Amino acid sequence: MKKYLGNNCTVQMITYERSIKSLVQEKAALHDREVKEEAFFIGDLGDIIAKYQVWKETLPRVMPFYAVKCNDDYAVLKLLSDIGVNFDCASKAEIMKVLDLGVDPSRIIYANPCKQNSFIKYAAKKNVEMMTFDNEDELHKVKALFPEAKLVLRILPPSNFKVQCELGNKYGCHPDKACTLLEVARNLGLNVMGVSFHVGSGCEEAEAFAVAIQQARNVFDLAIDMGFDMTLLDIGGGFPGQQSAPIPFSAIASVVNEALDQYFPASEGVEIIAEPGRYFVASAFTLTVNVIAKRVVTKEKTNDDDPVDTQGPVMMYYVNDGVYGSFNCLLFDHAKVEVSTLQESDERSYSSSIWGPTCDGLDCILEDCPLPELRVGHWLFFRDMGAYTMSAASTFNGMPPPQKYYFCEQDQWNMVYPERVRKSSYIQKIPFMMTGHLVDEAHDFADEIFGTSPAAEALVGSPYGF
Ligand SMILES: *Cc1c(COP(=O)(O)O)cnc(C)c1O
């Protein structure tokens, strides 16, 4: 059974408990039947819904603004907007994409401290008021182009904690310099209303948040003393999104909650937001690739005394996505990926390397991993491929992006898109569907369904969210 999420996007309902591997198997078998070797993503939208539930329970004081750059897939953005998550955008195109979903501009923070002038003008035109800054020139730009903006000062977090991707080398005003910057803002008559930070992406030490929140408090007080009406704390991103992360989300959440209660007690009424990216999407996507070529390398024994060289041949597999595509995360995001096969695990394994499809020697996904022997046409899959993968991929060498299949557990889907009572006469007149509708039921002609999106007045209520 399939439901409609808008924009040509259908979601296959899961009605009984199924493993990721079984979903991969189903679609790999479909590709085999259709003689299609294309790589594909399995997107488990229920995983994103579950993440939101955990967030609400674990960080009840913090409103998430999803960082669009992490994965700007339509289904991800549409679902997040429907469950009530807000957005962190960093460019005109990202803002456009989110506004096109019908999201109110007040649900967007333009969280790029160094913005191009034309983008600031666009934000002003579209009424996206909240934006970050960390330098004096930005204040002059905002004064000239959008003087009513609600400004959030991004400070530099402490750098002595371990993170997957450093951000402090590029952004953030040192807390010692905040006073000077705030004076400039005050002299320009600008409206500074909050403080933000980003501890770095893929935070590996929860304490980083505690120290950063404390520093934010100091800057907050400074700004209040200078006469600013401070109403917002933005604790940025950095939350882990997969089981294998060095520290669990819950560990960070408990440190954050404690620091918030100490430095920003609820009684004070300051609005707390965050900009999680990978938290929401990392584990929601699994990438399946096809073995398109293979090379067996028999090792030549160079040294008779070499104790290592006894394992027989080494396998090289070439697959149809790589470092220039979804696996760009290996370079840019310093990610580590883990490969799985559809074969039984008790087969003999060989030392194997996995290579992408482009002609570049750099295009290596895994250098040495034990795998059962594979043939051309076999499938390999990689879990936790939702964050900083497809959003930063290129089509270098003419390699196409993978297809996407969406799944969602039926109960979770129903929580976001409850069955609605439809006025059947109404539906007959409108040759398209609304988000949440069952595809087969609502219309006989799928082509027409996917034609145009409904006019605003044709909407029979909106998704209810939670
Ligand atoms: C990239 C980014 C995020 C998201 O970071 P995650 O580590 O994926 O949570 C949030 N805010 C800003 C300003 C960013 O640049």
Word description of this protein:
This protein has 466 residues and is α/β, with parallel strands linked by helices. The chain is 30% helix and 23% strand. The chain contains 15 helices and 20 strands. It has helices at residues 20-33, 45-58, 74-83, 92-100, 117-126, 136-145, 178-187, 207-225, 249-263, 278-281, 329-332, 410-416, 424-429, 439-442, 446-449, and strands at residues 2-6, 9-14, 40-44, 62-67, 86-89, 108-110, 130-133, 150-154, 163-165, 191-196, 201-203, 232-234, 271-274, 285-297, 314-319, 339-341, 349-355, 364-372, 379-382, 403-409. Strands 1, 2, 3, 14, 15, 16, 17, 18, 19 and 20 form a 10-stranded mixed sheet that branches. Strands 4-5-6-7-8-10-12-13 form an 8-stranded parallel β-barrel, surrounded by 4 helices. Helix 5 links the parallel strand 6 and strand 7 (130-133). The model is unreliable at 444-466 (pLDDT under 50). Bound molecules: pyridoxal-5'-phosphate. Residues 67, 69-70, 88, 111, 198, 201-202, 236-239, 275-279 line the site of pyridoxal-5'-phosphate.
